[in-house]
Design brief:
By secondary structure, the protein is of the alpha/beta class.
Amino acid sequence: MCCSEKTAIFDMDGTLFQSETVALPAFRRAFMRLREEGLYRGDPPSDGEIQSVFGMTQEEIWSRLLPEADEGARKRADRWTLEEELAGLRRGEGRLYPGVAETLRRLKAEGWRLFIASNGLRSYLDGVLETFRLSPLFTGVYGAGDHGTETKEELVRMLMEEHGVTGGFMVGDRKSDVRAGKAGPVPLHLRDAHYSGAKKLGHGKEYIYAHDVPHAIAAQQYLPDELAGRRYYEPRPRGLERDIGTRLERIREILDGEM
């Protein structure tokens, strides 16, 4: 994400909000309820184990903390934890990091567009913002738990597309936030072109449909400009990956124009 635009996208937990102030008690209470309902046996996870899942998606959290539980138990645990977190916020247990509220208000006054992009649920994010009277400062609030995105990068791309964000700053405390900040906007020719006004924005222009070209591999840019040319997967020379590597090498030759 380039820095020429006065836009800032913030993570919530561990960046603006000291999530452990409400999350730790909430998780402890949720596990007590699970044991009372006969849905969990043994010792509850330690504070360190609970804190290790902060910033993960809901699916990742319960896969880590309840690896042997069924989907029903995980959904109950998720619902109870959220209820306890919101109750904790109402009791005044939550804390922002020092200077957060003042900094956000100053940025807003200086004309910055502010967003939240978090792996948490929207109801939790709204609860934090409303508790500290920060909701009016944000143009958009995005929670992966509600949008169904699997990564922070996908969530940020969605936010950027829907709000016409072409650059700015990503502020967070985890590797996923760093990756999301590097994501950049989707190339124009790959953007949704079916709705009214999309063509005027250049969406879909010069898009190449892969099945219309030889080998069904279209030589066009797929990554944002900031990431063009990068490679994220190199197969190892053993097992199935050896065969994948041969195929991938040929695909890359075609994409590079070496027919």
